[in-house]
């Protein structure tokens, strides 16, 4: 493929990235505005109103993990595209890639320490370094091993939470064995299952110095996130690389193929997700049941729906490619790095003590107003900016640092 052909932007990839960066905020808003437990356990923080419960129910089914999954697919696809472009220009692809990943890691570290604890850039940089090793694999081999790694991750979580939920069941039965009851109490009364967020609330409603100090104290969480997420993030990146190579994510398949994959992925994914959400509700938002569904049992439907969403969105993008709305989504996707970091700066300023101080003051349902406002901002600023400039502000900075040379910004 010629370097000129590779230089052409893939509108489908850009638009998908735009939808993903907007969608990921819809779940991240919980982590901006409420204690960390609210993100995984709806029975802890976030309001007890019917609207708040419906908000959690719909978010769990339609959003949680799916937009992050789509973001991971697109990261893998973009990585494959950048490597192809480097090779077409006779550049050293390893140097180009690892330079980008090192600077992304530093961006992620700064983002975590000084802006928001929910950073994924550090994770993506580390996993991206690993994913590079598979750059020359053909699409079928990438898909095969991605599914194997994902399956192993699911098996590990299933064994862990299957055992935990079995122990809970046996310990709560009439006449339960005393040793099992004691073992169960030891687990649920351990610090890992403490939902007391008083220290967290005090820190995030305090000064900026308090917040940064807390982050430095918890910096090991970045490494824990890698261990926790590698069996999901790495295979998703590998799938993204494969779906770039076989033309799926660049919109090169027939419309009927996309429709078929959307049906095959979304219908079972939705049905299982609804069942899992109902299970959590019927348990009275029991903490172990909620964690099991959040971390383990939702992994398979999450993957199905991520791929189904990609197919469905590609069809929508192709159908409305000439519309003003898709044009703005494309621009938001081209500036996804800036929009991701920008929403962190905006939301942390709104909710943390050094800003408006709304932390732990707004319920789940009401947080949607902040999400809609941020979406409007993304769509409003991205296109006018990119009509005048070649890159978003943080995209330009990342590119300039990775290439050790200021890149031209104005068109």
What does this protein look like?
The protein has 411 residues and is mostly helical. The protein has helices spanning 3-7, 11-33, 36-40, 50-62, 66-88, 93-114, 121-131, 139-171, 178-188, 198-204, 208-217, 221-245, 255-282, 287-297, 299-319, 324-334, 336-351, 367-388, 393-402. It has 19 helices and no strands. The chain starts with a helix and ends in a 9-residue tail after the last helix. Mean pLDDT is 95; it is low at 1-8.
In short:
This protein has 411 residues and is mostly helical. The chain has helices at residues 3-7, 11-33, 36-40, 50-62, 66-88, 93-114, 121-131, 139-171, 178-188, 198-204, 208-217, 221-245, 255-282, 287-297, 299-319, 324-334, 336-351, 367-388, 393-402.
Topology:
Elements: H1 3-7, H2 11-33, H3 36-40, H4 50-62, H5 66-88, H6 93-114, H7 121-131, H8 139-171, H9 178-188, H10 198-204, H11 208-217, H12 221-245, H13 255-282, H14 287-297, H15 299-319, H16 324-334, H17 336-351, H18 367-388, H19 393-402
Helix pairs in contact: 2-5, 2-15, 2-16, 2-17, 2-18, 4-13, 5-6, 5-12, 5-15, 6-7, 6-19, 7-12, 8-9, 8-12, 8-14, 13-14, 13-15, 16-18
């Amino acid at each position: 493929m010629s370097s000129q052909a590779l230089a052409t932007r893939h509108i489908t990839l850009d638009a998908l990235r735009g939808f993903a960066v907007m969608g990921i905020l819809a779940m991240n808003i919980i982590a901006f505005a409420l204690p960390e437990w609210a993100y995984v356990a709806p029975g802890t923080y976030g309001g007890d109103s019917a609207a708040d419960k419906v908000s959690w129910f719909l978010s769990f089914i339609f959003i949680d993990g799916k937009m992050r999954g789509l973001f991971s697919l697109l990261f893998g696809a973009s990585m494959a595209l950048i490597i192809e472009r480097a090779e077409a220009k006779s550049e050293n692809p390893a140097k180009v890639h690892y330079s980008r990943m090192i600077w992304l890691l530093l961006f992620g570290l700064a983002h975590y320490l000084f802006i928001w604890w929910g950073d994924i850039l550090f994770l993506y940089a580390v996993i991206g370094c690993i994913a590079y090793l598979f750059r020359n694999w053909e699409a079928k081999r990438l898909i095969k091993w991605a599914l194997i790694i994902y399956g192993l991750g699911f098996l590990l979580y299933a064994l862990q939470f299957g055992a935990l939920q079995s122990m809970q069941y046996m310990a709560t039965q009439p006449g339960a064995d005393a040793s099992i009851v004691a073992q169960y109490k030891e687990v649920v009364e351990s610090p890992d299952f403490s939902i007391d967020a008083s220290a967290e609330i005090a820190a995030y409603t305090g000064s900026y110095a308090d917040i940064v100090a807390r982050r430095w104290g918890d910096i090991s969480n970045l490494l824990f996130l890698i261990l926790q997420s590698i069996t999901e993030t790495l295979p998703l990146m590998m799938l993204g690389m494969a779906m770039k190579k076989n033309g799926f994510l660049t919109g090169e398949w027939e419309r009927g193929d996309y429709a078929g994959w959307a049906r095959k992925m979304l219908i079972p994914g939705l049905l299982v997700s609804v069942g899992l959400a109902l299970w959590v509700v019927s348990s009275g938002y029991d903490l172990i049941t909620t964690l099991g569904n959040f971390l383990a049992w939702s992994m398979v439907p999450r993957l199905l729906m991520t791929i189904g969403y990609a197919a469905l969105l590609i069809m929508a993008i192709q159908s409305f490619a000439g519309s003003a709305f898709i044009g703005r989504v494309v621009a938001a996707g081209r500036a996804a790095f800036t929009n991701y970091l920008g929403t962190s700066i905006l939301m942390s300023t709104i909710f943390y003590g050094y800003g408006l101080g709304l932390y732990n003051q707004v319920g789940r349902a009401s947080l949607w107003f902040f999400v809609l406002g941020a979406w409007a901002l993304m769509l409003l600023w991205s296109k006018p900016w990119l009509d005048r400039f070649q890159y978003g502000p943080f995209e330009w900075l990342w590119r300039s640092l990775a290439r050790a040379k200021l890149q031209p910004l104005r068109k």
